[in-house]
Amino acid sequence: MTVQTTAVTYQNFINNQWVNSTSEDLISSLNPANRNEIVGYIQNSTEEDVDRAVEAAKKAKKGWRKLSGAERGNYLYKIASVMEERHKEIAETLTKEMGKTLLEAKGETSRGIAILRYFAGEGMRDTGDVIPASDSKALMYTNRVPLGVAGIITPWNFPVAIPIWKMAPALIYGNTVVIKPAQEAAITAAKIIECMEEAGVPEGVVNLVTGRGSIVGQRIIEHTGVNGLTFTGSNKVGKSVAEGAVARGAKFQLEMGGKNPIIVADDADLEQAVEATISGGLRSTGQKCTATSRVIVQEGIYEQFRERLLERTREITVGDGMKDHVWMGPCVNENQLNTVLSYIETGKEEGATLSLGGERPRDPELENGFYVEPTIFEDVNQDMTIAQEEIFGPVLALMKVDTIEKALEMANDVTFGLSASIFTKNIDNMFEFIDEVEAGLVRVNFETAGVELQAPFGGMKDSSSGSREQGTAAKEFFTSIKTVYVKP
Ligand SMILES: NC(=O)C1=CN([C@@H]2O[C@H](COP(=O)(O)OP(=O)(O)OC[C@H]3O[C@@H](n4cnc5c(N)ncnc54)[C@H](O)[C@@H]3O)[C@@H](O)[C@H]2O)C=CC1
Ligand SMILES: O=C(O)CCC(=O)C(=O)O
Q1: Which residues have CB under 8 Å from 383's CB, separation 6+?
Q2: What SUPFAM superfamilies would the database entry show (predicted)?
Q3: 108 touches 91 (CB < 8 A)
Q4: Is the ipTM, as predicted for this complex, more than 0.90?
Q5: Helix or strand or coil: residue 147?
Q6: Any domain includes 3
Q7: Which of 145, 162, 198, 365 is the most buried (most CB within 10 A)?
Q8: Which residues line ligand 1 (CB under 6 A)?
Q9: Is 118 among the domain residues?
Q10: What pLDDT, in 10s, does the model give residues 199-253?
Q11: How far is the centre of ligand 1, averaged over its atoms, from the C-alpha of 482 (Å)?
């Protein structure tokens, strides 16, 4: 039986108007904790809707760019304040739509607010340098100018943080925005846009178009009115964003997958290493690009580590993220659940030992949700699929090694390079790891997941396009440099 609890319909936001798609067709957004509950409906938008949004963003470009950084910053401060007032509602929508626990959703909503405030402050900071000219009478300087219209395509795993860490810098540096959120997280995105509307952001500056990636996302990639493309999601779609951008000469930035290792050395603090593995690997049901996925453990500590890891993982409560006692929610949708279950089957077929989990929970109360048990494999070797491919689920692969050199070699033996951790007290091991590991985010005695908004974030190898997001790095993507030469 389908329960239509709220069943509110969310529209596109184009030129400061909430409008239906020209398709007059809707997509329902399901609660992954209960497939029979419809959280709401979103627009199944068309290319024409995207074209209208891009037109509105183009029209608004000049007015927005002409405001001072401080004026744009004031809008971001106002959006942050409105979000603060609507914190509970936004966090609850996030949990209902995407499944992560309410505690995590509240933390993510607060993070979104902090990101807005950080970038609001950027409006008052320098936008260039004075460079000595060869002619002593001339003034030479650089000034950072906006790209124009930023096309933003976001995933479902951080429905508040990722749209905001792309939109806030886009806006503060003077760009206007067309955003297409993942359809699994589009209602949460619509609520953020409502906060922008309430804060009085001018007409056409922010435009939201929801719907399918293959239609809405693809049109944003191809549209010549979109000057810069920023994307977070799978490597497959990331590649097509890059190809589309290169084909028409648009600037682009990609953040994609990870296969993040944690190395546990013989001298590691056992409790800390176990807690970091669980938190980094299983929070948000393992659906983070920074999630710990490979656990490379030195043989001297292996038995103790595995025992404690299994013991602590058995304590995890799986269920509806809205409930207080629940530590791990469902996968985001049926597709993602099936992907995770099929990786578990492949792990078994390829000879890894399934030490814990691996199934859907048997609790009848959970039968309508997209749940999977936290899962631990042992005897995993480098050639196995579960040691190489991103699973994006609560699955840990334990690998035993004799030396730290071997551990490092294994850590680097994947196509990804997003985040990596080591747990050790040995300073030589720490610095060797920091020097040698192929990852954009390097952690010592800290979990692989979780990024700080004021620091650059991005990966090496197949994990990103080489560019960085957040912190001062965001300026690199969302602006172009003008070198100005003035002679009286
Ligand atoms: N790096 C990360 O944070 C994320 C990684 N993933 C990885 O991707 C896998 C699949 O998840 P999906 O939701 O299917 O990711 P996806 O890459 O298909 O979706 C990400 C965004 O791209 C859009 N999109 C999809 N097809 C498109 C196209 N042809 N043109 C333009 N935009 C398009 C989607 O609508 C969504 O807004 C996951 O299992 C995981 O491995 C997924 C989400 C986030
Ligand atoms: O670990 C985090 O906080 C951010 C992870 C992330 O960006 C992602 O999963 O897409």
Answers
A1: none
A2: ALDH-like
A3: yes
A4: yes
A5: coil
A6: no
A7: 162
A8: 153-157, 180, 182-183, 213-214, 217-218, 221, 232-234, 237, 240, 255-257, 289, 336, 339, 390, 392
A9: yes
A10: 999 999 999 999 999 999 999 999 999 999 999 999 999 999 999 999 999 999 9
A11: 34
